[in-house]
Amino acid sequence: MVLGFTAAAIAMLIAIIPAGITLCRGDLATAVVAYEFITAVIVMVLALLAQAFQRSGLFELPVILAVLMFGGGLVFVRTMERWL
Amino acid sequence: MIVKDVFSDVLLGLAVLIVAGASLGVLLMRDSYQKLHYVTPAALVAPLLVALAVLVQMGWYQNTGETFLALFFMAIAGPYLSHATMRAIRVRETGDWRPGRGHDSPAREKEQ
């Protein structure tokens, strides 16, 4: 286990707490912005944890989440624009 | 070996600082437009630093390639997503994203 990468992953998870507060307490548009922010950080956390545990297979998760972030984000945004 | 560790730790520290600062920006800014500006550092700059840290630690290896692939997808998706989000917020607020066509246009205000 690589200590620096584990520490960075934990620090990033702590650092998204303010964005989580925004997600919970803001209006719909603000919550979507916070959701996009948190998703981008989680992609990094997955890459950091994969490197920390030295598992090559786990590196596929951030790649998949980065692709899904685009599609999922657009679906959320389009839904907000048209129906919510 | 030690130089590699120190260099990757410095890159990771910078990435964490950027994410923490951007997260505070998302919390403290007034409206959604301003908050959206703080997504980009966390979605583009910090992943680049993380990918560089993996590169320094591992060299050119499969893990490094996959990290840069994730960074590539985020770099492609980020601007489109930001634009779509900003457009959706404006449509919600004014009814149309084009200037002068929504609720806030001068012609509509004159009619009311």
Give a nutshell description of this structure:
The complex is a heterodimer of chains A (84) and B (112). By secondary structure, chain A is mainly alpha-helical. Chain A has four helices and no strands.
Model description:
The complex is a heterodimer of chains A (84) and B (112). Chain A is mainly alpha-helical. Chain A has one domain (3-82). Chain A is built from four helices and no strands. Chain A has helices at 3-15, 17-25, 28-52, 60-82. The longest helix of chain A has 25 residues, at 28-52. Chain A is flat, with a radius of gyration of 15 Å. The model of chain A has no long low-confidence stretch (mean pLDDT 91). Chain B is built from five helices and no strands. The chains are: A mainly alpha (84), B mainly alpha (112). The interface between A and B is large, with 49 and 52 residues.
The gross shape of chain B turns out to be: elongated
Order of helices and strands of chain A: HHHH
Poorly predicted regions of chain A are none
The radius of gyration of chain A is: 15 Å
Question: Would you count the extended β strands of chain A for me?
Answer: 0
Number of separate structural domains of chain B: 1
Instruction: Please describe the biggest sheet of chain A, giving its number of strands, its sense, and whether it closes into a barrel.
Output: none
- What is the helix tally of chain A? 4
Instruction: Give the strand content of chain B.
Output: under 5%
Hey, which two chains have the biggest interface?
A-B, 49 and 52 residues
- The count of domains of chain A is 1
Structural class of chain B: mainly alpha
Largest sheet descriptor of chain B: none
Number of strands of chain B: 0
Helix content of chain B: over 70%
Termini Cα gap of chain A: 45 Å
Give the structural class of chain A.
Answer: mainly alpha
Global mean pLDDT of chain B: 87
- Average pLDDT score of chain A: 91
By DSSP (H or I, 4+ residues per run), the number of helices of chain B equals: 5
